[in-house]
Amino acid sequence: MAQHEHVRVAVIGSGFGGLGAAVRLRREGITDFLVLERAGSVGGTWRDNSYPGCACDVPSHLYSFSFAPNPDWPRTFSGQEHIRAYLEHVADTFGLRPHLRFDHEVTVMRWDNDRLYWVIESANGTTVTADVVVSATGPLSDPKLPDIPGLADFPGKVFHSAQWDHDHDLTGQRVAVIGTGASAIQIVPEIQPHVAALTLFQRTPPWVMPRMDRAISGAEKWLHRTLPFTGTARRGLLWGIRELQVGAFTKHPDQLGIVERIARANMARAVKDPELRARLTPSYRIGCKRILLSNAYYPALARPNVDVISSGLAEVRGSTLVASDGTETEADVIVLGTGFHVTDMPIADRVIGAEGITLAESWKDGMQALRGATAAGFPNWMTVIGPNTGLGNSSMILMIESQLNYMADYLRQLDVLGGRAALGARTSAVGAWNRRVQERMKRTVWNTGGCTSWYLDADGRNTTVWPGTTAEFRRATRTVDLGEYEVVRPPAPSADQKPVTEEAVR
Ligand SMILES: Cc1cc2nc3c(=O)[nH]c(=O)nc-3n(C[C@H](O)[C@H](O)[C@H](O)COP(=O)(O)OP(=O)(O)OC[C@H]3O[C@@H](n4cnc5c(N)ncnc54)[C@H](O)[C@@H]3O)c2cc1C
User: Fold this and answer.
1) How far away, in angstroms, is 208 Cα from ligand 1 center?
2) Residues whose beta carbon lies within 6 Å of some atom of ligand 1
């Protein structure tokens, strides 16, 4: 093999997951690691999604690292640019820059059974080998583009919400927004006042709750800066409230009726036309799809330059967009708010494990990982925000930090084993964990609420959401149970083969 760099740990991705892993590695005293990132800067989700109105749906004091509190959050729910700046700040504060390798799109990671390391190739032609891979490529980082006949021949502009074209001025244009997910409902009120006409293609209406957003006062910031425990207490309160809500999502979806009433009132305040209200009213239990927050979405839909088409986009004929119900609309621009590859993560096609098959092949019947992190047949490979670690109502940063506890203990266990060794998740342990998860999933609103959503894979299996509290997940990932793993050692050298020495493998 040509010259390459070897590190103990290769982290892939530099969003919250990758940067969090990097900080944690340094805290564990591990400096022999690299962070490979396909883009030219850190930030992940919050670098890529720069569409008008992009903001977080979880309060900032909870949607940030516990080890890097920010007393200066400007608003209770921060916008994209502030979260992105926060992540840049984390990279500087924790000395992560020397570890970052930008423009390194990982094209393949291959496990070497003899040398017990991962060979990681990037699109720029470089190769890195690593004892352990921490894959933090994000659950929502690869835009999903719909396969609509004629879309490729649309004469106007087409872009995905995560690839916003800031050079294209929408003023006075006829814009079609496809989809009514979290991104679309943030985009619509921002662009509506500027465009000539806005047509929203809605397959399923979302439940939209009021957004309790406000500027954080100077006094609050001063308090959190001067007495840091007040920031911690605020975070604790935000966390506790959300933990108390979990039971309604996971065990008692019938209790969510009261939340539906608040969402209906949110709509009724802004939408006076009963026919439009009927079109915007969901027919499934709130929480089944992600609950969205906005005070501006419904008022925007009630404006005269907006039309809501209650069916998906079926075909594009020149500049005419044809909905599934036959409605035709003229447009100059199409904004695709069509989400991401979630249950079919592209990175899974790029990971080749001990048996020579890809992770995608191994997951052909649905994604599954032990404690959301490790997969059978893929030694010393773990993922951050892996299968069944998503949340419906709280901060993903809590889950990421739990997974980083697991990563830290995994590396400690490898140290204890000594010599060249890897840990491979046992098929039985992965199976047992996932049976437990799927059993608990049966009663949840995501599976029983009467909707289809991006939480479910093509076979209707929920492989994305964690059916419990974040505290339960924290407990489940505190330490690695060695009984769930087999220890992999290098193969014994055959008589006619030179032994694989430490020197040879580095
Ligand atoms: C618009 C939007 C709003 C959201 N709002 C919320 C919210 O309100 N609350 C919440 O909890 N969560 C929210 N999320 C989910 C959010 O994705 C997570 O909270 C979190 O930011 C994920 O961090 P991550 O590091 O795992 O992934 P990402 O932030 O997606 O980072 C992954 C990184 O990996 C890189 N990468 C991917 N593939 C490769 C490759 N092959 N080689 C090298 N690098 C690669 C990407 O370029 C990216 O930088 C939102 C997501 C989106 C898209």
Assistant:
1) 23
2) 12-18, 36-39, 44-45, 49, 54, 56-58, 63, 104-106, 136-141, 182-183, 347, 384-385, 395-396
Residue type, 414: L
378 C-alpha to center of ligand 1: Å?
23
Ligand 1 centroid to Cα of residue 138, in Å, is 4
Residue 119 lies in a domain: yes
**Which tokens sit at 222?**
């001063």
Q: Where is the domain boundary, 338, 373, 391?
A: 338
Are both 188 and 76 inside the same structural domain?
A: no
**Considering the domain boundaries, does residue 89 fall inside one?**
yes
Same domain, 411 and 497: yes
- The reported pTM is 0.95
* Residues 136 and 165 both lie in one domain: no
* Ligand 1 atom at minimum distance from 394 CA: 11
**H-helix or E-strand spanning residue 280:** helix 274-280
CA torsion through residues 10, 12, 15, 18, sign? negative
Asked if residue 261 is part of any domain, the answer here is no
Same structural domain for residues 157 and 305? yes
Task: Return the number of other C-beta atoms located less than 10 Å from residue 223's C-beta.
Answer: 16
Domain assignment present for residue 268? The answer is: no
For residues 315 and 348, membership in a common domain is answered with no
| pLDDT attached to residue 505 | 36
Residues 6+ away with beta carbon under 8 Å from 29: none
Residues 6+ apart with CB under 8 A from 232: 69
Residues 490 and 398 in one domain: yes
Residues pairing with 333 in the sheet: 157, 175
* H/E stretch holding 16: helix 16-27
Q: Please give the average pLDDT of every successive group of 10 residues along the chain, which has 506 residues.
A: 84 98 97 98 98 97 98 96 98 98 98 97 97 97 94 96 97 97 97 98 96 96 97 98 95 93 95 96 95 97 97 95 95 96 91 97 95 98 96 95 98 92 97 96 92 85 95 98 96 60 36
What's the total number of domains in the chain? 2
Helices (H), 76-226: 80-93, 182-191, 218-226
Final residue in a domain of this structure, among 323, 338, 353: 338
pLDDT for the residue 503: 37
Q: What pLDDT does residue 2 have?
A: 55
Residue for token pair 């925000």: 385
**pLDDT at site 460:** 85
**Domain around 297:** 143-206+293-338
pLDDT for the residue numbered 501: 37
Burial class (CB in 10 A: 0-12, 13-18, 19+), 403: buried
406 shares its domain with 484 = yes
| Pairwise CA distance, residues 306 & 289, whole Å | 24
**For the domain that residue 22 is a member of, what is the CATH number?**
3.50.50.60
Same domain, residue pair 187 and 331: yes
Q: Please check whether residue 39 is in contact with residue 107, taking contact to mean a CB–CB distance below 8 angstroms.
A: no
